[in-house]
Model the fold of this input.
Amino acid sequence: QVQLVESGGDSVQPGGSLRLGCEASGIVISSYAVAWYRQSPGKERDVVAIITIGGSTHYSNSFKGRFFISRDGAKNTVWLQMNNLKPEDTAVYYCNLYTYPLEWGQGTQVTVSS
Done:
């Protein structure tokens, strides 16, 4: 069964950092473009960052310089390093295959609050 499972969400203060993980099972994650998305209450799910099969990374403008996507082939995992977190980053974060999306997982909750 092909599955992506998100982890690493937590409650942090503004300015803090978190690293989210997207662990794949049933596929070799480096064979696919993978994206991180987020959804805030009452808003649509938006793309945060993408890592291509070749390892190129792309970010939505709001996250450039603060968020960094990477891939660990040994752990079959895509990471999202989030720095200088702001209250507006509060959301549920999801990962998915970018070109051939799977059914959405449960995501991982990130809350940024003082």
User: Anything to note?
Assistant: The longest strand covers residues 18-25. The chain has no helices and ten strands. The mean pLDDT is 96.
